[in-house]
Structures are given as structure tokens and as C-alpha cells.
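The protein record passed on below.

***
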Amino acid sequence: RMRRTYSKRQRHLISELSGASAVLNVAEDPSGMHLCARLNAMGRQIMTDQGIAARGQEHGLHLRALSSQAVLPDPPQGLLLGYAAFDEQALTKAAHTLVSMLQTET
């Protein structure tokens, strides 16, 4: 039952993030409770993932920078987005805040 719930929330979050497709690549993941939203080439030109996470904090979002989890000299740029603990209404609000924030940067 929870697997179906998480899958539904994941699909909802991906759909709500479609407005940020100019800077983020987000794809379904068959497992887990987080999504990895990688910064594409345009996104990397605008801001680092740590910069986006810091800006998100200013807007009430708790975003994890993918690069902060890496030990590589040139870490991947992206955001780790948790969705399992939130209902669709909360996910919609957070996604719209993130999309709006990213669109003002482009």
C-alpha cells in the first residue's frame, strides 16, 4: 500500500516540477522516497546546486544539494528531493515555490 502511495506522490512531484525543465532533469525512480533532480547544462550556468539549496532555504524549502553528498573532485550538480512524508498539496506548494524561484534566475 505504501509503495503505491509513494509512487503516486513521486509522479505528482515530477509533474509539478515540469515548469523547471529548462534547468532540471527529473525522471521517475522505481524505488526510494527521494528524487534526484539533476541540473542540466543551462541550470549549471545559472547557479550551483548548493546555491539553489541556500536560496530555497530563504523561501522555506529544505533542499539537499547533491554535490554535498559527493566526495568526487567534480561532484554532480542536482537536488535531492524528498516526497514520501508529504501529501500532494504540500508537494504542489513546494514544487511551485521551487519552479518560481528557478524561473526568476533564468
Observations:
- The chain has a mean pLDDT of 93.
